[in-house]
Sequence to fold (168 residues):
Amino acid sequence: MVLSTFEHLDENKQQRILAALVTEFSKYPLAQAQVARIVKQSDIARGAFYKYFSDLKDAYQYAFKEVIGRLHTGIAGPEMRRDPYAATVAFLQEADESQDRDFIRLHFTKNSGMVTVGEPPIAANATEWAVTTLCHSAISQALANPEQADLILKNLKAALLQLHVKES
Fold:
């Protein structure tokens, strides 16, 4: 992830760099992203970029972690255990209304296969594992194919009912 020199920057500079990363990765897939645009927007030297991140993929992984962290609160908490369908719908709605919407969509349509950004922890219980896997898959598919979101959520709901997962 980020190198220790980045962690020692003041909060304002870190936020400026993060904003530049999010802007770049909201407009361009990782394969077309450019360090030059990032350093220009964040007002840092190109050499400084490589003191903060190993490479562009490293910077992307950091930005993804930050962006998803802003959205992930409801889907990862007790709401997910209580009503996974509602938590999934709420996450998709929040993602769609988020300032980071373009970043998230580009991640699922172009970038997800190019980087490893972490998987949800594997649950010990088979049903919990299945629910988590289904919900994450539904999120990925709905964000990559927004025109199919209703069908994807309908299928998720049916699958959860097959697993006897209660809906509130």
